[in-house]
Design a protein that fits this description.
The structure is a homodimer of 374-residue chains. The first copy, chain A, has 16 helices and ten strands. Chain A is of the alpha/beta class and 374 residues long. In chain A, the strands form two sheets. Chain A has an eight-stranded mixed β-sheet with strand order 3-2-1-4-5-8-9-10, with helices on both faces. Chains A and B meet through α10, α11 and α16 of A and α10, α11 and α16 of B. Chains A, B: Belongs to the NAD-dependent glycerol-3-phosphate dehydrogenase family.
Amino acid sequence: MPCQNFDYCFNNNSDELRGDSRKKIAIVGGGNWGSAIACVVGKTVKAQDDVFQPIVSMWCRDSRKFGDTTPSIAETINATHENPKYLPGRRIPSNVIATSSLLDACESAHILILVVPHQGIPQICSELRGNLRDDAHAVSLTKGISSTSENDVIRMQLISEDIEKALGVECSVLMGANLAGEVADGKFCEATIGCKSLENGEELKMLFNTPNFRIRVTTDYEAVELCGALKNIVACAAGFADGLGWAYNVKSAIIRLGLLETKKFVEHFYPSSHHTYFESCGVADLITTCYGGRNRKVAEAFIKSDKPLHIVEQELLKGQSAQGPPTAQDVFEMLEIHEITEKFPIFTSVHKIFTGEHGEQELYDSLRNHPEYD
Amino acid sequence: MPCQNFDYCFNNNSDELRGDSRKKIAIVGGGNWGSAIACVVGKTVKAQDDVFQPIVSMWCRDSRKFGDTTPSIAETINATHENPKYLPGRRIPSNVIATSSLLDACESAHILILVVPHQGIPQICSELRGNLRDDAHAVSLTKGISSTSENDVIRMQLISEDIEKALGVECSVLMGANLAGEVADGKFCEATIGCKSLENGEELKMLFNTPNFRIRVTTDYEAVELCGALKNIVACAAGFADGLGWAYNVKSAIIRLGLLETKKFVEHFYPSSHHTYFESCGVADLITTCYGGRNRKVAEAFIKSDKPLHIVEQELLKGQSAQGPPTAQDVFEMLEIHEITEKFPIFTSVHKIFTGEHGEQELYDSLRNHPEYD
């Protein structure tokens, strides 16, 4: 029987259509930054429940050993709405439902937020491959660089490109001056989305943007992603400077010269990039990370002690990792292959301090004799 | 009788010529930064005594009241080679000879280094006018903005332009990430010279450059000078943020948005400027000043107390001045005349916090609603 009440039918039908088209969000990663971004996204989807499904799923790795009967991180988050291991004291909204099953979290998601350490990406992609919606897209918050080999020639590759190739979905990036605890607390900050298609970029802006978490979108995704990755190397240099008792002027010079090495790196590998160093992912993220980030902290402690890096990390980060040292190694290897290490003395010296080949004097000389002064 | 020994005569003659052409240096200003730059220049002229005369004269204002029989600052520096009032604990080289007479210091100088607060420039220029060598040139280390009136229209003017008009000599600028104490200690840092003629710029680079004080030269002098002036306003915003207990992400956003307001200001008033924000005078000086400078310190104390600004300055700076508040006022007046205050919410809010018209909320809103997010 046809509906007699046109308004009711129209709205009902419209609601159904709207219900079908609402996007489901999955967060892949339950660490410090993943938990902070859950605080943001849990709220934005509820405030826009005509666009997004209000339940956000969040995959957290179950790192318990066999026989361990304590609750998993996912169980703890669902019971307490807090991640006491990686983001203690901050409330994760109750519409964020955590799970230890990667497929359960992701298979019906329209948007995947990937926020795991670089090292975890290959296994996650291999588990997800072939198990996602055809119309899904992703955004990577992961920092690092990758590489690919073609006819024995090793080429730079972005982590977002790794993800796209592995999953067959478009992958944007979100980077910015975002210390996780401050973001979770709802304090004002900014971030940059680097996207391939502006359609996905604008949808991601809707998902992340709040009055206190201000998002700008650019299609210069290579520079956005590399700024996010390379700033961790510069932050290690800043941490060394702090540990060695150097001063404000030196640290500012490190940040400036580090930004210029970042720019040169992007220009070398992605000459068509139009650069966005004045965005939050550029100069702002670099400053935050060089003053308040974990890479700075680890590097400062490393250069002041005789302990190996993994011990310093264990003591300071309680299970989280610092991406600066492995990124410095990956970048150094890429610079060596392309025979351009001498153009990047800070990146090079940071790597060599971690391997023990460089000391204080070499780092100092990498500044004083920087090619920028030629 | 003609000289029988050609080599001797030639060399003797050459020596004489060289002796005549050696440049005499005068430093105008005996404050914190003037004393620190005396530490640098005192050494560089000695190391290059074929180019520069080894005696540097340094004018220090005699601020004693009538009847005060304590030694003047100039007398103290000449007796102890230290400026205990403004740069205690650092040795000023003994070839720097201080004097309370401006004319004695400057009238035979080839290069004048002007390093006094903005407020002191008019009187100094009026005393020096007509009393300098015809071939002299100057370099200003003074931070601030000026204005000029033509047919009742008020126009922006640089302080270096004020100096050029008043003295009839070319005036370059030197700006950079240079906390004075660290420069005096010989710690590594960088600076930028903005010059009109590269000939004078390169001569100034010889005068200031050392293995630890690295100078780069550009002809983009408007941007260099304005970066040096406007960073003090941004540093006040950073100080307010510190005083209000805001966090790293916010402070990085302030620095980034402040840099963008600086860029916009330069583009508005000097559209032909080719911009040098990646130089030390740009991003590096901004970071140093927002973390370690006196404007940050004064602003932090001001917003945490009920005391008027001049009391806070007296308590913290011991007779030195903070250029941020007067520069914020001068800039605000210029923005009002040109009806563009709304494009510069941070500059505007900093001024209005000092006048009591704005509080914490307005500053916060100047960030969250910044036109950069439009």
